[in-house]
C-alpha cells in the first residue's frame, strides 16, 4: 500500500502543466507594444508527453501568417524555420515545479547579429499568460499577453 501511495505522489509531483488548447488573445488584458507587436491573435497548442507544437496566427502590416513550431520539453535544442529563411534555435524547459515553461530562442540576422527571444508560459486563473521579451541590435522589447481558452 505504501509503495502505491509513493508512486502516486511521485506522479502528481512530477506532473507538468498542460498548455494544450486553442487560445484567443485578450487585448484588453494584454500589455502590447504600440508600434511593433508580433502578438498572435490566437495560438493552438498541442502538448503530448515530451513534445509540444505551437501554431500561431499573426497579422503584421496587413498580412496574415501562420507560424508552426515544434519543441521538446526536455531542455534540448530544437530548430524551426525563422524569419527570412533563417533557422530559429530554441530550448524549451519547465521550471522545477513544472508550472512554468520557458522557451529561449535565437534567430540569426543577415548582419551577423542575432535576435534573442524569451517566452515564459504559465496558466493563471484559467488563462494562458505569455511573457515575451526580445533583444537585438534594433533594441529591446517586451510584452505580456493574456489568452482566453476557446
Defining key terms:
ten-stranded antiparallel β-sheet, Lipocalin, globular, 150 residues, 1 helix, mainly beta
Description:
- A hairpin with a 6-residue loop joins strand 6 and strand 7 (101-108).
- This protein has 150 residues and is mostly beta strands.
- The chain has one domain (18-149): Calycin beta-barrel core domain (Lipocalin).
- The chain is built from 1 helix and 10 strands, in the order αββββββββββ.
- It is globular and about 60 Å long.
- A 10-stranded antiparallel beta sheet has the order 4-3-2-1-10-9-8-7-6-5, with no helix packed on it.
- Residues 7-13 have low confidence and may be disordered.
- It has one helix spanning 2-14; strands spanning 21-25, 42-48, 51-60, 63-72, 74-81, 87-94, 101-108, 114-124, 127-136, 139-149.
What structural class results from the helix and strand content?
Answer: mainly beta
Query: What is the name of the CATH superfamily?
Result: Calycin beta-barrel core domain
- Measured as a percent range, the helix fraction is under 10%
At the third CATH level, what is the topology name? Lipocalin
Beta-strand segment tally: 10
List the domain count as a whole number: 1
CATH domain class name: Mainly Beta
Strands ordered across the widest β-sheet: 4-3-2-1-10-9-8-7-6-5
Please identify the oligomeric state: single chain
